[in-house]
Amino acid sequence: MEEVKMIKKVLKGLTLALLSVLLVLPILSGSANAATNESNSSSQASSSSSSAITTGQEDSLAKIKQKGEIVLGTSPDYPPYEFMAKGKVVGMDVEIAKKIAKDMGVKLVIKKMSFDSLLVALQTGKVDMVISGVNPTAKRAKSVDFSKSYYKAGQYILVNKADKGVYKDMTSFSGKTLGAQTGSLPYNIAKKQAKNAKVKGMEQVSDLVIALKTHKVDGVVLDQPTAEAYAKNDSSIVAKDGKFKLGSSETSDVVALAKGSTSLRTQVNKSIDSIKSQNLVEKKYLKTAGSYMKVNTANTSMWHYWKYFATGVEYTIGVSAVSVVAGFILGILLAFMRLSKLRILKWLGTAYVEFVRGTPLMVQILFVYFGLGVIVNIPALLSGIIAVSLNSGAYVCEVIRGGIISIDKGQKEAARSLGMNAHDTMYSVVLPQAIRNIWPALGNEFVSLIKETSIVSIIGVSDMIYQLKIVQADTYRGVIPIFITMVLYFILTFTISRILRHYEIKMNKKVDTLV
């Protein structure tokens, strides 16, 4: 009976943990939203008296004016277009977005995510426009609409300073490795035009620069302003003209909009015409971005960025705590479904477990955020928690099911012979022994869950990996932020391992005492 009490205490603790985190979760979301709003407060319109200019079926502009805000999707790792400085998204593209929002009389809200998720976010209504060094390719035009071009730039190649005499242009990389951002125009151009060169794709430009400096790639293909920005702020690399053969669509940067947003595109084009007529990009926006980049390198010590790492730890713990409890409860439910004598319940439980274990967690997160987002708009933080919880439940189910099956049938028969019914036998005899037997396996699942939550960064959740990328892009340093993140993950996993080990020893002592 002492062991039963122990199990009940653990279950009670987990339930209390779930309730506590659920109470804290709105605070996390609220603080994140407040930070976003604060970082974009300068984009608040000077006047909100303008009225909708569209009537009829196409009302994309009217809808934005009605809600009073326009949501920008961007990948802030591409200076001077968009990057992180002083805890907010800045850059040439951000200044253009502010101008567009001001001309509409609405507030600008910025959503950060990986580059190859941006157009998906646009198609599923997560964002209203994408400004992130986007080029208007024919393939992309099938899925989204484009504005007029607001800037034209060539394609350059970053190389290590020691190799500047070796590599002259794209023809120098035969038999070598070129890096480029996955899903970007530089990646496609390098694939087509850099003959006999191996092209390696990565999601983040900061990762590509680290790969270059650590000799994992021999060059990195980037837009001219971005390549020059990195070279200007890092004396160990230089920017070379790649001399790629480019058409007008391959040198133009545009605003991407949802397919069929005619009225919104018309309004955006008006803002772009105003920007070009005043030459604001060259005269103002690039200079503004450059001033942030100077500040960006003023203090690159990791102590200066402790708040970023603290925020990452906060979100990682929050997502993990809720997912652990929700996954454990779901796992128990699924285990009983799989052990049920009712075929329909057994079939449903088995189908769920096999499907979830047979698909990658990354795909599940993208499906919950973007796929279900077509039906209901689920915030990124909640989407990450739901996906991780559903994934964890499938694995916990098998651990618990295995523990229940491992209990000798004689234990059940003895309990029934003493007059205990099936319910009492399960909860007073079988389940307590099963939990004790599977506790190490459950602990391993919980520890793994902390590390697996790192994948939620792909949809813009500010966990440790997301903050790591920000610090890398902000400081142009790659290895030190990675090392600090590794240490923080180790501290979290080691702490939870010690706690779980403490309860394992305590349960074993109770059993030894009873024996």
How would you describe this structure to a colleague?
- The protein contains 19 helices and 14 strands.
- The strands form three sheets. Strands 1, 5, 6, 7, 8 and 14 form a six-stranded mixed sheet that branches. Strands 11-10-12-9-13 form a five-stranded mixed sheet, sandwiched between helices.
- Mean pLDDT is 82; it is low at 17-57.
- It has helices spanning 2-39, 60-67, 92-104, 118-123, 138-141, 185-193, 205-213, 224-233, 248-251, 262-277, 280-296, 306-339, 343-357, 361-371, 380-406, 409-417, 422-452, 464-475, 479-514; strands at residues 69-74, 77-78, 82-85, 88-90, 107-112, 129-134, 144-146, 151-152, 155-160, 177-181, 198-202, 219-223, 237-241, 252-258.
- Helices cover 60% and strands 13% of the residues.
- Strand 10 (177-181), helix 6 and strand 11 form a beta-alpha-beta unit.
- The longest helix is centred in the first third of the chain and has 38 residues, at 2-39.
- With 515 residues, it is of the alpha/beta class.
- The radius of gyration is 27 Å and the shape is elongated.
